[in-house]
Amino acid sequence: MKRNVLQASPRKLTGKKVKALRREGKLPAIIYGGDIENTPIVVDTKAARQLLADIGANTLVTIQVDEEEHLGLVREVQKSVIKRNLLHVDFQAVSLTEMISTTVPVVTEGEAPAISDYTAMLVTELAEIDIEAQAQHLPDVIRVDITGLKEIGDSILVKDLDISDEVTILNDPDEVVVLISVLTLMELEVEEEEEVGVLEELEDLEAEEVDAADVEVITEAEDEVEEY
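Given the sequence above, the corresponding structure tokens read:
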């Protein structure tokens, strides 16, 4: 198992004072849960951004605070509304032996023959699955192979999911995850209208000549955020 390590330091600044940390390229964060008290920390913003881009919601992170190591999961990421800059990260401390209940997103893979053969559509009934597992066995996603869906009405149920024996699914085994459904007349008309709309927009763009002097440049305003 790959070890995802994030270096951190204890943090004394709180409230609006953390603005100074962000100006220095540092990100306020906190570790909570397990056998430790709520511990405010500060991490390098660039390192945190890279880590968050590489891991999933249920990926274990080793947080190195001075000489101590804490195993944790990312539980909340706060970003500014406009620029989407990182503002704060919450880590939940866990142990490798404790059982954790969480939700995992469903990701479909492959192409269902029924979609092209019958002009049908794939309906996702469960976008997330409730599971329980030890921290080191938590999956980031549950992958669902839909290549076996060949007829209208074909479906994949919770009990059909291919998942590790170390993971317990908490949903009803007979719940539908995905199924093949017929496109209704209304849905077909909407698709046709969207195609026509796209073609008309392309024709309008080709016909127009835009004068650069008439283009208004809009700059992003500074985000107003609540400090933590």
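The domain at 5-95 is CATH 2.40.240.10 (Ribosomal Protein L25; Chain P). Try to locate this feature in the token string yourself.
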